[in-house]
Amino acid sequence: MKNNTQNLQLKADGGRRIAGGHLWVFSNELVTVDKTIEPGSICGVLYPDGKPAGAGFFNPRSLIAIRLLVNGTLELDGDFVYNRLKTALDYRKALGVERFCRLCYGESDGLPGLIIDRYGDYLVVEMLSAGADKIKNEILDAIKRLLAPKAVLLKNTHPFRTLEGLQMYEENALGEMPETTVIEENGLNYKVRLALGQKTGWYFDQRENRAAMAPYFKGRKVLDLYTYLGGFAITAASSGAQKVWAVDSSQSAVDLAEENAALNGFKEKIVFKKEDAERILSAAARKELPEQPDFILLDPPNLVRSKKNLNQAAKLFTRLNAQALSALPEGGLLATSSCSHHISREIFAEILARAAASAGRKTILLELRSQAKDHPILLNMPETEYLHFALLKVI
Fold first, then answer.
1. What is the mean pLDDT of residues 289-299?
2. CB 92 within 8 A of CB 83
3. Of the residues 43, 101, 104, 339, which is catalytic?
4. Domain region containing 288
């Protein structure tokens, strides 16, 4: 892993972002964007006065032209990737989740664009930047040295790769990835589909939110919308919920969720249904369900793919939450999530306030949470916080 000898200079007003601790330099913040430099090369970055600002992955084809790896003049040695991944692993060990976790979370772990999810002896790797793509061999070597996994899947199918000018592909980089494996989370077991799963198979980012909801489930009638593999539904069943209904539009997800319920001894306690969550929510809001829930979990997929559709997505998210609040009785609970960095914590709170007003319901905020700690948030880089989670009580 070597530096390119070329330095790229920031415009007069282009250094404020990284001087404040941010790790991205946009193409319009550079004096020139040298398109002859190979995407993913490591280049130096200079402040307008010529002083070194750091070094990072450069991609002349991307709006995010530079993703900083280091500040100042620190040299990148041959063990750079290994050392960064070891630090990331040690951090997860300290959290007690190192066997099943997000092992590397891109910029937050000092390796921009690199996502690694660990499922015990199996790793799923996503390379979302040209820089991460270029050092693929160093990444795989470091993984082998650190963990000696049985298999590594490169799941390079995320739309971010298109923005970087990279091809989409999946590849078994080491060993043979099984179709499914079993993970443990908060004392429960889940069968997870790897090669064909959403994202990389499991939403580790909700781990701590699932645990936090456990005390609230006792005695409740829970409706879990967008259940995926049943994480919240099974947590509810294991925490003393009176009844649990779980809905997802994917038959394969519902089938696996049912297997997971059986795996944990709750097959008879949860009713799974392949159905459109919005249709069920609309019926609940009109009080048309055979039995109404008093706890609704609303965890939709990412509704905001880019800033340009933020307003449209915010309106949809407001409507979904308003319908959920309308469906609940007095004393009912709504646990709701947003998983886009385009929706800040402030916007999230505003959406929930508008939803409550639209539904004509008075609510109190019991919990306001974020993503699990194995998705660390950089204080000076708000893009690293994308998951917002709230628990509201209707009063």
1. 96
2. no
3. 339
4. 182-394
